[in-house]
Each structure stands twice: as structure tokens, then as C-alpha cells.
Write a structure and sequence with these properties.
With 96 residues, the protein is an all-beta fold. The chain contains no helices and seven strands.
Length: 96
């Protein structure tokens, strides 16, 4: 793993999502949303970014199994398993 500042152009950060259907998250402009899953019983999304870029807003949707998922405008990021697997939530980035 390199720590040379000139070689490190991006970094991976995490955002903890709120337990709501649709929300805006603030990430550095140009961030690449990598995946979503659970961590310590919370739904999180990880993204690669340039931490010095100005902040921008992205829309994320959380859908429980058996509920309507975003149409073609939703890019699947991952599934979070909460309460020992009793609750399954699927996370999408709304791209339009």
C-alpha cells in the first residue's frame, strides 16, 4: 500500500445511510459509488473519491425485499442484511 501523496489520487470513503426510502448524500464531485452493505447494523455506501473535490449531491434509494425497485434509472449498489438476516434492503443510486 502506497502512502506517497503524489501517487494517491483517490481515497475510499464511507457514508452511513438513513433508514428512509430515498435520500441525498453529500460526496465529493466525481465520486464513484462502489458498493453498499451493512456495517454494525447500519446501511452504508462506500465510494472512491478525490477528497479535495467540491461536494456534490447524489440520490440513493433503499428498497426492502418485495417492494418496488427503481426503474431503469437505478444502478444497483448492493444488499444489506440487518437483524440477523430477517431484514434485507437493496440499495440503488438514482442516476437520472
Amino acid at each position: 500500500m502506497t502512502t506517497n501523496k503524489e501517487e494517491m489520487m483517490t481515497i475510499v470513503w464511507k457514508a452511513v445511510l438513513q433508514p428512509v426510502d430515498v435520500q441525498q448524500i453529500s460526496v465529493p464531485q466525481g465520486a464513484e459509488l462502489l458498493c453498499a452493505r451493512e456495517q454494525h447494523e447500519r446501511i452504508c455506501v462506500w465510494f472512491r473519491c478525490d477528497p479535495s473535490a467540491p461536494q456534490s449531491s447524489r440520490t440513493v434509494a433503499i428498497v426492502g425485499t418485495g417492494n418496488g425497485a427503481p426503474a431503469a434509472d437505478g444502478r444497483y449498489l448492493g444488499t444489506a442484511s440487518l437483524s440477523g438476516g430477517a431484514l434485507m434492503f437493496h440499495v440503488f443510486e438514482r442516476v437520472s
